[in-house]
Amino acid sequence: MWFVLILLLALFPQSIWAQEASTSATPVVSDTPAPTAVPTIDPYILKIQQYQADYDFQKTQFNAAYTIYVTKKQVHTKYGTVITQREKQEATRAALIARNNMLSSYLLLLRVTLDKFKPANPTDTEKQQIDLSKWEDYLKEQNSIVSSLGNDQDFAGNTNKFKEKYIPMQQTIYSSLVINQINRQKIIQDQIKTLRDSILSANPKPEGLQPISEVAIKLDLSNSNLDNALKATQKDQNGETFSNFYPSSQTYLIQAEGYLREILNNLKGVVLKYL
Amino acid sequence: MTDETILINQDMDTPQANPLKAEEKIPENSLNTPKTGIIGKLKTPKQKLLVGLVLFWVVLLVFAAVISIVNQARKNLTKSPVTPEIVEPTSAPILNDNQIPQIWQDKFKPIEDSLKPYSDILPPTFDLKIGL
Fold first, then answer.
1. Chain B partners of A271 at a C-beta cutoff of 8 Å?
2. For residue range A76-95, what is the model confidence (pLDDT) as tens digits?
3. Count of C-beta atoms within a 10 Å radius of residue A230
4. Looking at beta carbons, which residues of chain B come within 8 Å of A173?
5. Which residue is closest to A195 within chain B, CA to CA?
6. Of A55, A252, A51, which Cα lies nearest the Cα of B123?
7. What is each CA distance from B19 to A20, B12, B16, in whole angstroms?
8. Tens digit of pLDDT at every position of chain B (132 positions)
């Protein structure tokens, strides 16, 4: 028996002392519950999260409806019966409604997103939000039209009309994205100006004045890039397909942001060397 | 071969003439182990059994100790995290934020946060020919 005991102790010491260890590891629970800190979440972020969740849901709904539509279309192409045609029309209707809902939830999300940097340019941002809102209404209206479509010709006609409307809709969408980015950078510019003034009021050495004076030049360069980004959004859309200006606007926006980073680095240098 | 050599060789067959002498008779008591050391000194079987048991326990304890040490070492090995080698930067950054006084760091921080990458929520892509 002693032999077995010693052997056990040697081979599995942790299992023998486990009880002691687990007792010591048990956290001491105090009688009074610890005060739970309620994190304060920005209502704007909450709103965005809510709309983002709705948009994600609508996207999933559309993907499912579109898959059914593709299947029913293939079945009708193969068999061409009245039943398969009716099923295809039903699937088309469901897919179109799901598409409109998805787009509508996207537009709503974008419209609310614009609020974040709206103080930089309230007038133009408001105008953009109104345009987005109009497209939301258009899509809601479309849903009731699609529900009443009865034959393949009606569906085809509706699709062609939507294709035409989707060009200015995309223009509104991408312009909103660019304006939002411009607003964001304008707010950063204001923050930089405030910081520059603080540094100036701290009386830096005369050598530090040169990089500070360059801030204005770089801000001008940044602004001219922002203007170009905005100009790119006003591109005429004459063709049958949307001519996307977003990539060229993005190039200008990146350049503008580069100047802001440069300014920030220079100001850091002034603080380090001349204050 | 001469007659004389033949005679000599014949003589070898007799035990007397064999150059390899027969071994002397070993006394019977010489086969016993010499009575040296602890075991050798023990007389009764009871004493021998006791010593045997003690030796057995000693071996067992040594064995147990070795296993325990091995177990402990293995446990320590699994517990200790493998720390990656810290690669020394080849060159110091031009602007070290830590060198900036805290009061100024607090002023730079919000701008740096604002300049963090901001990604647009792009519109969904879908088939524009649904219904055609």
1. 100-101, 104
2. 999 999 999 999 999 999 99
3. 19
4. 123
5. B107
6. A55
7. 81, 7, 8
8. 445 555 455 555 555 555 555 555 555 555 555 555 555 666 678 888 888 888 989 898 988 888 888 888 777 655 444 444 444 444 344 567 778 899 999 999 999 999 999 999 999 999 999 988
Find the CB nearest A95 among B60, B112, B130: B130
pTM (predicted TM-score): 0.67
Interface test with B, best of A1, A61, A90, A99 (most B CBs within 10 A): A99
Smallest Cβ–Cβ distance between B60 and the set A6, A52, A106 belongs to A6
List CB contacts (< 8 A) between B100 and chain A: 268, 271-272
* Closest to A72 in 3D by CA, of A60, A84, A80: A84
**Measured between alpha carbons, how far is A159 from A256 in angstroms, rounded to an integer?**
40
Residue written as tokens 């009606």?
A154
* CB-count burial class (<10 Å; 0-12, 13-18, 19+) for A260: buried
Alpha-carbon distance A271 to nearest alpha carbon in chain B (angstroms): 7
Coil vs helix vs strand at A204: coil
Q: What is the pLDDT of residues A105-140, one digit of tens each?
A: 999 999 999 999 999 999 999 999 999 999 999 999
Residue in B56, B70, B111 to test binding to A, most A beta-carbons within 10 Å = B111
The dihedral sign for the CA sequence A260, A261, A264, A269: negative
Closest residue to B121, CB basis, from A113, A158, A275: A113
Amino acid at A151: N
Cβ A270 vs Cβ A199: under 8 Å: yes
The percent of residues in chain B predicted with pLDDT above 70, rounded, is 51
Task: Estimate the crossing angle of helix B45-79 against helix A2-11, to 10 degrees.
Answer: 20
Query: Measured between beta carbons, which residues in chain B are less than 8 angstroms from residue A85?
Result: none
Closest Cα of chain A to B38: distance in Å? 25
- Each residue's pLDDT tens digit, A162-199: 999 999 999 999 999 999 999 999 999 999 999 999 99
CA-to-CA distance for A267 and A192, rounded, in angstroms? 9
- Model ipTM value: 0.80
Residue with tokens 């029309």: A89
- Alpha helices by DSSP H, listed for A27-151, are 43-79, 82-113, 122-148
Amino acid identity, residue B79? K
- Please tell me the distance from the alpha carbon of residue A192 to that of residue A261, in angstroms, as a whole number: 10
